[in-house]
Amino acid sequence: xxxxxxxxxxxxxxxxxxxxxxxxxxxxxxxxxxxxxxxxxxxxxxxxxxxxxxxxxxxxxxxxxxxxxxxxxxxxxxxxxxxxxxxxxxxxxxxxxxxxxxxxxxxxxxxxxxxxxxxxxxxxxxxxxxxxxxxxxxxxxxxxxxxxxxxxxxxxxxxxxxxxxxxxxxxxxxxxxxxxxxxxxxxxxxxxxxxxxxxxxxxxxxxxxxxxxxxxxxxxxxxxxxxxxxxxxxxxxxxxxxxxxxxxxxxxxxxxxxxxxxxxxxxxxxxxxxxxxxxxxxxxxxxxxxxxxxxxxxxxxxxxxxxxxxxxxxxxxxxxxxxxxxxxxxxxxxxxxxxxxx
Length: 342
What we know:
Layout lengths: L2 E6 L8 H9 L4 E4 L9 E7 L5 E7 L2 E6 L7 E8 L1 E6 L2 E6 L3 E5 L3 E6 L3 E8 L18 E2 L5 H15 L6 H19 L13 H16 L8 H8 L3 H10 L4 H17 L9 H7 L5 H12 L3 H9 L5 H4 L7 E4 H5 L1
Parallel strand pairs: 1-13
Antiparallel strand pairs: 1-3, 2-5, 3-4, 4-11, 5-10, 6-9, 6-11, 7-8, 7-10, 9-12
Helix pairs in contact: 2-3, 5-6, 7-9
């Protein structure tokens, strides 16, 4: 079930705001450092969290320090949009300053310290390694975080999508969160590989990276086609199959493996999505280009360590009554955490 939480310190007496905020964030592995005597203290948060840990957060805080213990979220990736204010991000890898207008992404560190030097409004997305983060696993990042060039079209689309989604967190439904996650993942992937950071993927070759980007975009758009092949992709790109294979090998993966892995990852995501529970495993595998159910099951287990049916059944436990709804539109569970903290 999609879990939506809200918190607003402004609804509480001034002498209770910092302690309530600290109590709210403590179960999330976050420690608050703030001046308890400051009458200007402010903290407001809205968050949408899926059972597979894809997380969308809108955060509005006064000057303070938040220390996140991220060990449970290791190997994921995050995206940060600075709507207002300035501050710093610090991990064991170093420190990075941010300011209004920045759009940053990075790999999840074991511990992260966010310091707001003034009033700050942030939109934050966390992509879990077991889900959408797998698509972004090869994305290059600097030691703490990497900026995205806002002039690129894909980055502008991503920024607009994140801003709009953050403004509407309380209205997001269980059926809408997966398409939103998929769209953000693909726009982030495209934005990264059109940014300067992508030059380091293949020995600093901008030209090669441009072809790899075009190739991955083409393959992603045609994953559901069972006839998709390296030769067909190479023909559409106007290059030889040998050169296409060579480019992918320089990124650490061949084309056939990439196609199979991405089809399996898309199937993995849909099998744990309540929106697709009414559909059979075979229907989902066929939709992502697999013509042989037995081959799909073997490949799925080889990659993820469990069968498609085991994976689906494990996620049914996260959805109360999902077997009875048969795809009916579900509203998220909304929790007002002020009542819990007061």
